[in-house]
């Protein structure tokens, strides 16, 4: 049995050797891909186990378009696939990937592909899609399944899981002097459910005009809800439709009008309402007679396509959504995340000050919670410039944590030079939960942009972004960071080491950065399969310098001692370090009895009459009773100890012996 335990823990040591591959230093972070060329447009999806998948467009092979690459990072920040990612597509003709979890531990990646472009049609782009399992193996045909293969130009894609290993896709496509919205359902085996190639399934029915930027969510019934904007009526308006798994339209046959107010409404974003409906927000220029003063409006659609939020200024028969912000100047690119109560947190960039970030919470009934026109979150967000297509703009990213709070991540130039990544969390009343000046996620030099935050379990988030700190690399790279639920980056802890000398074991470790760290618990295995806590060392809490820590185990057990650290944050969350094995000198056989004990224990050591010390430690590693230079083979009084488990350490001339004892009431 002892050999089994030893082998088990040695295997565990190998498994945990990658502890905290996350780098908590905001000036360093964790690199996902730093290959030659340009890596950009990163998008990520949770892996269901606290980690994430991320994909991106990659020109490492020197082509204008490049290929699509992906990486799987586990909850400890360890990259599980090949260094710099695996190629999902090859041939240097792919761009603008989109990603979704496949519901079975893997991912589905879709992209625009120019493999069939030629000298007579250099702009031809088709939609391809690939499914990849958790180990990085492609499950469909090499280089992906064609979701359509006509000769038209495609621009923007959306993809979501169908809940059964397949995916729904939507895209805008230029066709006969118009741009329409098309879609496809790819089954779990890679076969197409809607139509046959080369003809895609048409999702919208304008008589003429241009449709743009489809966005997708599940309808909660194995189908999808899609929203987009088009100018069939002469100005851009917001539309939506629901499709079942067979591609049948379930709402208004001529498309559901979400908003057809005066002037332009553009760039919708959508989330599920949790009740088989959806919440949609958009840029709204209905006050356009004053100039381009885009505001933020929103609408809730129930499962049957009824619009539920009615503005007091709209008649019931022409419901064009509710105002979220109609402040002076321009508000744009709104994003949203669930409030976990049927409503939404909505955030947007705002020009009323100096390119600020504002937020509002809208309840399920359409009422707002924060002050009129939203609450200021931060100033100096990076202005996205001229917005042609929002899907790849440098915009706000949002998620909901496990307590129903909103987490917001953005690109920020508050230092006046670099473009860095910052984050903040607000509760249901709009209170900031993190540092007043926000959390610095990345403060590396040059440009960091297109940040995305996704849920990682336990309320944590994982942030990915496009990064230009390695400008000598000829292009941007992909970086990431864990963002804890308490608004901190992880402690970056270097490997634990241990050395035996003079009957003691000296343990040493370092931290490169600390944020919100409280203390380290030293844990040990000697003669059992379970770790015992034998000591505690307070942490610095917040530091960006290299710090050195140490702990001396003055009472190691004889033979093999396995150690690890339990690093505890101020919010009670913890992580474990790597495991180290340190061998201590031999010691004579020691017996402690009775065990369990109520009043007295006897220490029996054949051939030995006295010990230098006898120390009893509680489970927190604190010495609760000790004797110096005492005879053994006699009773020791433990009646004053509280009931529970303890470790007894006996120091003899040149050795240390330890045993576990249980004290009964």
Shape designation = elongated
Mean pLDDT: 87
Termini separation: 31 Å
Q: How many helical stretches? A: 1
Spans with pLDDT under 50 lasting ≥5 residues? 1-20
Proportion of strand residues: over 45%
Major sheet details: 5 strands, antiparallel
Task: Describe this structure as you would to a colleague.
The protein is mostly beta strands and 665 residues long. The strands form 12 sheets. Strands 33, 34, 35, 38 and 39 form a 5-stranded antiparallel beta sheet that branches. The protein is elongated, with a radius of gyration of 30 Å. The model is unreliable at 1-20 (pLDDT under 50).
Give a topology summary.
Layout: H1 2-15, E1 30-33, E2 39-46, E3 52-58, E4 67-73, E5 86-87, E6 94-101, E7 107-113, E8 126-132, E9 145-148, E10 153-161, E11 167-175, E12 178-186, E13 201-202, E14 211-218, E15 224-230, E16 237-243, E17 256-259, E18 265-272, E19 278-284, E20 295-301, E21 322-325, E22 331-338, E23 344-350, E24 356-362, E25 375-378, E26 397-400, E27 406-412, E28 420-426, E29 439-442, E30 448-457, E31 460-467, E32 477-483, E33 492-493, E34 497-501, E35 504-515, E36 517-525, E37 532-538, E38 542-543, E39 547-553, E40 559-569, E41 574-576, E42 580-584, E43 591-593, E44 600-604, E45 610-617, E46 623-631, E47 635-637, E48 644-651, E49 656-663
Antiparallel strand pairs: 1-32, 2-3, 3-4, 4-5, 6-7, 7-8, 8-9, 10-11, 11-12, 12-13, 14-15, 15-16, 16-17, 18-19, 19-20, 20-21, 22-23, 23-24, 24-25, 26-27, 27-28, 28-29, 30-31, 31-32, 33-35, 34-35, 35-38, 35-39, 36-37, 36-40, 40-41, 40-42, 43-44, 44-47, 45-46, 45-48, 48-49
